[in-house]
Amino acid sequence: MSSYQAANSTANSVIIVLGAPNDNQGNLSDIALSRCQTALKAYRESPQSKLLLTGGFGAHFNQTDTPHAVYGQRYLISQGVPETAFADIALSRFTFEDATLAIAIIEKLQCRELCLVTSEFHMPRAKLIFSQIFANLALSYLEATTPVSADKLQLLMQHELSVMDREKANLARFADG
């Protein structure tokens, strides 16, 4: 039994899968696929959970006419996840928006437990944001392995460090209302 399954055994749990790039034909990037595969494993261990996928449109991750989250849902459905397992999608453009746009969806589901799925390089920033915005929920975290070279992973990690101050400022503004 995974730590997710043990910690999240109620019908009021949500697995939130943060978006990553897709190409102009809607094919998920390796990073997006890795996140979906990690979420799929968690869902199979806890099938009463709802899946909430994030990602709308943006020049840096999705320039198609279909929301990124829909591509993720299609992939998960192709892997056997029933359509009824999905919550509404969050049409977000970036990590902070992933969290803020998920608030209403999670409240509608009366969620008490939230499992955040993202890549290991992205987790420190995502955890900072989600742990403050969803401080009233039981949170767990699942890191998807990033299928890139060590050099590319290092660049991704450097980017994440470079935006932490911005996210702290976003959180301060959010807390101030």
Automatic annotation (TrEMBL):
InterPro entries: Cell_Envelope_Assoc, DUF218, Rossmann-like_a/b/a_fold
A cellular component annotation (GO) from this entry: plasma membrane
Pfam entry (one): DUF218
Record-annotated DUF218 domain positions: 14-148
Record-linked PANTHER family: DUF218 DOMAIN-CONTAINING PROTEIN (PTHR30336:SF20), INNER MEMBRANE PROTEIN, PROBABLE PERMEASE (PTHR30336)
Protein's name in the database: YdcF family protein
Organism: Shewanella pneumatophori
Lineage, opening ranks: Bacteria, Pseudomonadati, Pseudomonadota, Gammaproteobacteria, Alteromonadales
